[in-house]
DNA sequence: TTCGTTGCAAAAGGTTTGCATACCA
DNA sequence: TGGTATGCAAACCTTTTGCAACGAA
């Protein structure tokens, strides 16, 4: 087997210093991160990478199905490495950004059944769950307005 | 009863020529429309309304729960009048934009159960379904590449 | 008359692109 | 060496905001 574990899914993916750095930082993210945040982290680390390159790399990863993407209320895209094959759905805390994968078999089955019932083909679905996590709720309770 | 059917949900909603026009065009939309599209339609109709006003009106309608909103891949927001109380989910054709409401009880129940299981509170969910509608599929079949 | 609304212009964000340069394979 | 990747600057797009003028109640 040749090529890195990242490069196998694209015909001409070159392993560059920048891409390695982006992937390293992205892998270290427990929660979703925006292109801007990744870029800031890289800059702080001393690994200077152009914002453009961050965007281009994230787009490539997205097209290759290597990251999960959610959208902020503002329209900003947030990225997170995909743990396994197949896409995941997440529950994201609106307050602190904590994210956790949730079991979405129910939704997957529902989407399939909708496809059957409507005559639509090639159905894709996006599911975004947000809420307030337990810790943030406790903080809220401890600091009443 | 006083006030228009639109104005009941906001403390100080004035019925202006522009808002009436926007609501009229929006009501006539079978499918989702962007602010830009609504503005273009209004302009073509001869009802000159500022793009800013379209945005502000749509935002007010959104906050009042009077429209359903979906997000394009680009991040652009698309609006559609909400037929009844409570939010709806739609299946939207990626080719022609045709949209139809779908029964989403399954998803609603799933979201509720996730809330129970995770300890998250105030859970909100976004579900977006896209596909290729029957008509577009037939067109595709009739016009092979 | 009063105060919410409008519309222009400009700003604000996030994301993409043109193009010359740098660099991996 | 050849072709891809990079990065800067600038363009793009959608959405928001400042502010003076307007108009509904």
Overview of the molecule:
2 copies of one chain form a homodimer. Helix content of chain A is 40%, strand content 23%. Chain A has 145 residues and is an alpha+beta fold. Chain A folds into 2 domains: 1-85, Winged helix-like DNA-binding domain superfamily/Winged helix DNA-binding domain (Arc Repressor Mutant, subunit A); 88-145, Ferric-uptake regulator, C-terminal dimerisarion domain (Dna Ligase, domain 1), CATH 3.30.1490. In chain A, the strands form 2 sheets. The first copy, chain A, has a 3-stranded antiparallel beta sheet with strand order 1-3-2. The radius of gyration of chain A is 18 Å and the shape is flat. The termini of chain A are far apart. The A-B interface holds A 71, 75-77, 91, 93-94, 100, 102, 104, 106-107, 110-111, 114-115, 118-134, 137 and B 71, 75-77, 91, 93-94, 100, 102, 104, 106-107, 110-111, 114-115, 118-134, 137. Chain B binds a DNA duplex (25 and 25 nucleotides) through residues 12-19, 34-36, 49-53, 55-56, 59, 74-77.
Strand order in the sheet with the most strands of chain A: 1-3-2
User: The CATH topology of the largest domain in chain A is what?
Assistant: Arc Repressor Mutant, subunit A
Uncertain runs of chain A: 1-5
Helix content of chain A: 40-55%
- Cα(first) to Cα(last) distance of chain A is 59 Å
Radius of gyration of chain A: 18 Å
Residue-averaged pLDDT of chain A, rounded?
Answer: 84
Q: Number of helix segments of chain A?
A: 5
The portion of residues forming beta strands of chain A comes to 15-25%
Corresponding CATH architecture of the largest domain in chain A: Orthogonal Bundle
CATH homologous superfamily (4th level) name of the largest domain in chain A: Winged helix-like DNA-binding domain superfamily/Winged helix DNA-binding domain
Classify the secondary structure makeup of chain A into a structural class.
alpha+beta
Report the oligomer: homodimer
Largest interface: A-B, 34 and 34 residues
């Amino acid at each position: 087997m040749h090529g890195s574990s990242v490069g196998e899914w694209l015909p001409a993916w070159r392993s560059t210093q920048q891409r390695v750095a982006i992937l390293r930082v992205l892998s270290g993210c427990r929660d979703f991160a925006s292109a801007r945040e990744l870029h800031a982290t890289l800059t702080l680390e001393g690994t200077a990478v152009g914002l453009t390159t961050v965007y281009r790399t994230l787009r490539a990863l997205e097209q290759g199905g290597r990251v999960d993407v959610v959208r902020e209320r503002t329209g900003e895209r947030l990225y997170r490495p995909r743990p396994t094959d197949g896409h995941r759905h997440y529950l994201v805390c609106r307050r602190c950004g904590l994210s956790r994968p949730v079991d979405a078999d129910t939704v997957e089955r529902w989407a399939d059944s909708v496809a059957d019932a409507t005559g639509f083909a090639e159905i894709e679905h996006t599911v975004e769950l947000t809420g307030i996590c337990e810790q943030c709720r406790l903080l809220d309770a401890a600091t009443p307005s």
